[in-house]
Amino acid sequence: MLPRERVIATIRREPRDRIPVYGWVAWNLREKIDPHFGSPEALEDHYEFDYAHLFGGPACYAGDAFNGVEQPLTPRALLDVAMTDPNDGAAYADLVAAIAHHQGQRGRFVYVQTPGIFEALNGVFGIENHLLYLGLYPDDLHAVYQRQAEWNRAFALNCLALGVDMVHVSDDWGGQEALLFSPRTWWSHIFPYHKIVCDAVKAASGYLSLHSDGNVTSVLDGVVELGYDVVHPYQESAGMSYDLWEQRYRDSFVLMGGLDVQTTIGFGKLDFLEAEIRRVLTRFRDGGMLYCTTHFIQDHCSLEELVFAYDLIFRLVRNGAG
C-alpha cells in the first residue's frame, strides 16, 4: 500500500498492511538530527513516515494587532481587535509547498494544524484569565467564540481546497486527571463552536482529528457527536484507558499516539521504551491506531534514543507487530 492509502484505510477501519507511523521530531530535535541525517525531512524519509503534520497559513491576529491595547484583555475588548483575513491566499504559500513535498512527492497523508476554541485564545487572554472569564463573562465569550469559530471554519475549508486530507483541530482541554473546566462548561461553551467547524469539514468530505492533551474522558461522547475521526494523543499517562476505547469508542474514532513523550521516550530507559513500543504496537496490530508521538519529543531526548526507538518501530511494524 502507498502511505496515504494506509492511513485512510486505518481511519476507515478497513484492512491495511501495517500500522501507519509518524513522529513529531523536528520542533525540538533539529540540531541533533541535522548532523546525523542531514535534516528532519531526511529522517522522515529514512523511516518512511506515512503521514505528515503540517503547520502554516495565516495567524488569527496580525503581529501588531495588540499594540496599544489595554491589558489584561477582556472578552468584550477582544471583539474590537480585528482578526486577519483567512482568505488571504498569499498566506498559504508555506502550506502549498508542504503539501507538494509530503503528499505530492512522498505520497503521504497530510493533515494541518488548525486553531480550536479554548487553546486558540489562551495566548490572547492568558490561560488563568481565560479560565476566570468562563465564570465572569460567559455571554461575552460566546460572542468571542462565535467569531473564532467562523475564522476557523474559513481557514479549514481553505486548507481542504488546497488538498489537505485532514483538519487537525488543536484545543487542549485536559489536565492530568480531568478537564480544566467542568463538562457542563464544555457542552455550553466549547461544543457549539467546534460543531461549526466540524460540520463544515464533514460537508466538504474532509477527515477530522482532535488534539487535546490530558484527560478528556468525560467529554468523549461529545467528541463522537462532533464527528471526529481521529483523537490525539488519547493520553494513557493522564489516565485515559485503552480498555475504555475498546469497549465504547472503537467504532467511533481511531487513536493517534501511542509513544508517550511524558513517560516513555527521552528518559534513557531503553528497556522500558522497548517494552512500551512492543506493547502498544502489538495491541493495535489489527487496527485502530495511527502510531505517533503524543506530542513533540522533548529536547532531553538523545539522538541515540530517538534512533533506537524508530529503528525498533520500523522493524516491528514490518515484521507483523503492527
Explain what the structure shows.
There is one protein chain. By secondary structure, the protein is an alpha/beta fold. It has one domain: TIM Barrel (Alpha-Beta Barrel), CATH 3.20.20.210. The chain has 13 helices and 7 strands. Strands 1-2-3-4-5-6-7 form a 7-stranded parallel β-sheet. Helix 6 (118-125) crosses helix 7.
Q: Do you know the CATH architecture? A: Alpha-Beta Barrel
Strand percentage:
5-15%
Please report the distance between the alpha carbons of the first and last residues. Answer: 14 Å
Silhouette: globular
Element order, helices and strands?
HHHEHHEHHHEHEHEHEHEH
**How many domains, as an integer?**
1
Q: Any idea of the CATH class? A: Alpha Beta
Number of H- or I-type helical stretches: 13
How would you characterize the largest beta sheet? 7 strands, parallel
Q: What is the spatial order of strands in the main beta sheet?
A: 1-2-3-4-5-6-7
Percent of residues in helices = 40-55%
Radius of gyration based on Cα positions: 20 Å
CATH topology-level fold name = TIM Barrel
Beta strands, count? 7
| Mean pLDDT, all residues | 97
How would you describe this structure in keywords?
48% helix, alpha/beta, seven-stranded parallel sheet, 322 residues
Write the layout of secondary structure elements.
Elements: H1 3-11, H2 26-37, H3 40-46, E1 51-54, H4 75-78, H5 93-105, E2 109-115, H6 118-125, H7 127-136, H8 138-162, E3 166-170, H9 183-203, E4 207-211, H10 220-226, E5 230-232, H11 242-249, E6 254-259, H12 270-283, E7 289-293, H13 303-318
Parallel strand pairs: 1-2, 2-3, 3-4, 4-5, 5-6, 6-7
Helix pairs in contact: 2-3, 6-7, 8-9, 12-13
